[in-house]
User: What shape does this take?
Amino acid sequence: MLLFRDLSFRYKIPLRATVLVFVTASILTASLLLREYSDLRRDVLDSSARWSDVLSQTLVAPMLHDDVWRAFEILRAATSPGGGEQASAITLIDTRQRVYVSTDPERYPMLAPLHERGDAARELASLIDGALDASSRTVEIGDRLFVVTPIDADGVRLGHMILEHSGAFMRARFTGMWLSATAVTLLVIALILPVSWYWGHRMAEPLVRLADTIGRVGTTIPPPEAVRFYESKDEIGQVGEALARMFDELREKQALEREIVFSERLAAIGRLTGGIAHEINNPLGGMLNAIGTYRRHGATDPELAARTMSLLERGLVQVRDTVSALLVEAKAPSHPLRPHDIEDVHILLKPEAAKRGAELHWHSALPGELPLPATLVRQVLINLVLNALHAVEPGGTVACEIGVGTGVLSLVVRNDGQHIEEGRLPYLFEPFVSGARGGHGLGLWITYQIVHELEGHISVQSEPGMTVFAVNLPLKIELELEDAS
Amino acid sequence: MDRRETLRRLGAGLAFSVTNPGGAFAFVADEPVRVGLTPVFLDDQVSFLAAWRDYLAQSLGRPVEFMQRGSYREVVELLRQDKLHFAWVCGYPYVRARRWMNLLAVPVYRGEPLYQSYLIVPDRDTTTGSIFDLRDRIFAFSDPDSNSGYLYPYFQLVEAQASAATFFRRSFFTYAHKKVVEAVGLGIAQGGAVDGYVWDTLARTHPDLTARTRIVARSPKFGFPPFVASRAASPELIRQMQEVLCAMHEDRAGAGFLAQLNLDRFERGEPALYEGIAAMVRRVGELAD
Assistant: This one.
């Protein structure tokens, strides 16, 4: 369910403005109507009283001459729709408080005593009884208004005229007023609404854009022109300015980071080339020495020649080893990984563990053949376990767990030897970064390259007493696997 | 009475000598023929009256003036004072003033020069069967000089030895048959006496009015309210007027007016037609004495 709270300001502000306009207009209309109603009531009473006075004058002659029909015709004309709708009924009362004639003969039949014609009539009768002055009186009984006017001729009372307004008459007038007032209010609302919607929109727009812009931060940093949307000193303007400043700073930070990464990469390349140069320089130096010795002490000494050749050969083999170690052939043909490949590694490493006096715990649980190149996985495993065996003290423990998770082959190798210092961790997988126990430092680099080639992931955790290497290799990769036969 | 009559004749002779200084029969060309109208018919149709007046003027070759008054009495008085040549009055005033009124023409209604008086009550009243059921009620008469709207019901009460003054709780005059129908229909009066011809005509033109009333009783037939001539009308004018009226049904325009009046035609008529009314007048006079 969409809550008002969650609505965009784009709608919220105009909606609030609408409600405000509506409430204001309604209150104004209601108060005006209330005033109008009391005015209307007073006007009706005033005009009725005046009109009654005039009407009573015209009734003097018919009453004096006892011309009932003439009197009735005057009353009927006065209550007809063309008579200004001044009254809903008019009744003449004679001096003996009997109905002389009425426009409503059913309620007020001729000659009927007035006080017998209902509660309102009884009240009117008592009012007429006490009335001695010549002015008309207004009385409200129930929802009806009555104007009672005496009919006097030359100081002699001929009777009374009772003018009756039904509640419906006032209601009809008021309804008419209410309808026109409502129409005007609706018209005003119709005129104001578009304006308020436009203003609301204008007010909400920068907020909406602000939210949009901020929402995009994270994936990108919006360009400066996207932030420049509101030139003002008000709160939104201030927020916009602050945001622009913040984005500038973010951009600077990003540039700085990029620079750092770049220089780190340069440093890594420097270290790599240094390592390669060193690894190649050492045998080269030896070989050049051997050649120099050979030149000085004559080519006649066949023993020296043989020794020199042997020396050169060893030196070149070392160089070749170094170079081939750098060229990791991920795409080398290989057969799929089978459980006994892992067992072979175990058997291969057992003697090394024994030599080191370390305990090797081996736990392998492979369901069967896996779509991974056996050679590379074995190399990764050998590298990691050899490193671990080198790391432990005599009597230490190396634990190896090989298992299949959801879509991955996981290799976990733990050792309780000396831990890797935190400072070395970032460079651990670079070549020629040798550990504390020597070595050319290519083992982990090769491991990393293989894992990377297989689109896997390698992680290391190291703390005093426990170092864990964990490798996850996805099983989805379709490699060029060597034919099983 | 004889003395008054003599005086009146004297006055009339005087008027004649003044209007005819030459003593000849020639009328002053512009002098209109003055015709008094009473509500013995629906005399409130102003445009119809104007057209009918023009028709009569054209037929007579002289201007015609219609004069209407609030009551029969006023018209009869104008007639008596020779201020009118002709008038359409009720049979009752004609009977009373036969000495100086000449019968000019009698309308023929539904094939005979006769009409009735209706006793009407509001349509809600389903029990009243005659005027005698209306004791102590409120009753509407049309005109004190009307046969159908006053004389006949009065005669009925007198015949029954009821005191006409106290029989009804209250009675009043509306001075028009149509208004009696209104008074009864609106419930102002609980009964009324009305010209049957007017009621029938109203039933055709204003059925909403008559629908609210119910006819309780119809009187015997009486002579239809006649056109009469005063002493102011010369024999020649009387003859002309008689010819015009009695020939109305023969031309299209005249027939149209007759149709609107809901009459068949006019005929000369005989004073004997009004014997019924005259008898009632005598009987009322005897009983009242």
Remarks:
- Chain B touches chain A through 14 residues (CB under 8 Å).
